[in-house]
Amino acid sequence: MTEFGVNLNNREPLITSDYTLADLLDLAELAEQRGFGSVWVGDSLFSKPRFEPISLLSAISQRTSRAKLGTACLVTSTRNPLYLALEWATLDQLSGGRTILGACMGNPEHGVRREFEALGLPFGKRAAVFEEGLAVLRSLWTTGKVTHHGEYYDFDDVSFYSGTEMGPLMPAQQPPPTWVISNIRLTGELAPDVAKKRMRDACARVITYGDGWMTCCRAMHPEEVAEQIAALRKAAAGLGEDFGRYTVSYQVTMNIGDSAEQAKTAFGDYISSYYPELSKSVDLSNWGPTGTPETVADWFRQFSAAGVDHFICRFGALDQFGQVERFAADVLPALGKEGTAS
After folding, report:
1. What does the alpha-carbon distance between residue 227 and residue 201 come to, in Å, rounded to a whole number?
2. Largest interatomic CA distance in the chain
3. Which residues contact 178 (CB under 8 A, 6 or more apart)?
4. Mind listing the pLDDT tens digit for each residue in 138-159?
C-alpha cells in the first residue's frame, strides 16, 4: 500500500516570518489528522541553516500519536555515531517506536564541503565515513553493543550500559528502520563506467546498511527510479537479502495551484529562497510537479507505477497549511486514499 508523508520544512521558519516554529509543530498535528502517515524534517549544519532535526522530532513525538517520524535526510556522516545512536534511541523510545532514519552522506555542493572542513572530516572519503557510522548504529541498536575497528571509528565492546542499569539503553525498535539516500543516475554528467560503479556501490550500501532506499530530484524521469530499483533487486539477490522487505521512498517537492502558471511561479520563488545555491544549478522541473490537483495526482500515479512505496511530500510554497489541506482534500482522494477530518 502506498504511503504519504509531509516534510515540515524546518528551514522555512528562518526564511519567512509567516511560518514559525510553533506553526511547524501545529502542521505536524494537522498532517496526522488529515491522514498522512509520516512527518519529516531536514538537516544541515550551516550550509542551509534550519532548526535541529532530532530536537524537533522529539517535540513532534509529543504532539502526535500515530504518524511515523523521520529525517529527509540526516547527514549522519557528520555526526559521531555513538552520540547519534544514543540520541536516536531516546527519540525512538519517546515516540513509542515511530522513527525512520533517513540517512545521507552529504551532497557535493560547496556549502556542505565547508561543513566537513569545519568539522575536520574528509569530504572526499565521506562514503566510507558514512558506511562505518551506519554499521556502528546498526550494531548498537540490534545487539546493544558495538565492537568496530575501522579507518575512521575504533570501538571495543562499547555499550550504553555500565552494569548498574537493567540493561543497555536501546531503541523501542531494534533497530529503527534506516532508509539510505542515493541519487545516482546512469545518464548525465558522469562517464558511463563511473556512473555504473557508483550505482553498484550505492545499491550495495542500501542493501547492506539499510531497510529502504530514499531518493529525490528525478521527477521528470520515473524510468530512472525503475532503473535503480532493478539494480537494487540485483544487489539484494547477490547479497542474499529479500528485496521485498525494503521500502522505496521518494521525496517530492511540489506546488498545487489553480493553474499551471500560478503553481510554477510560486514554486520557483520559494525554491530560490530555500536553496539559493542549488536552485541556480539544477532543473527545478526535476524536483517535482507543479499545477492543478489532477496534474499532481497524475505524477504520483506514474511514480507509484515505477515502484515507489512511500512519498514524502514537500510543498514549495509559503502557505504550508494551505498546501497540506489542498493535497489532503484534492489529491489523496484522487489517488484512492481519503484523508481524515479533524
Report:
1. 15
2. 64
3. 100, 101, 102, 103, 134, 137, 138, 209, 210, 211, 212
4. 999 999 999 999 999 999 999 9
β-pair partners for 247:
212
Decide yes or no: CATH 3.90.190.20 for domain 3-104+177-335.
no
Those residues with Cβ within 8 angstroms of residue 152's Cβ, 6 or more apart along the chain or in another chain: 125, 128, 129, 132
Strands (E), the chain: 3-7, 38-41, 68-71, 74-75, 99-104, 145-149, 154-159, 178-181, 212-216, 247-256, 290-291, 310-315
| Start-to-end Cα distance in the chain | 23
pTM score over 0.85? yes
Cα separation, 114 vs 320, in Å, equals 30
Q: Please tell me the distance from the alpha carbon of residue 11 to that of residue 19, in angstroms, as a whole number.
A: 10
Number of residues assigned to the chain = 342
Q: Which three cell numbers stand for residue 190?
A: 558522469
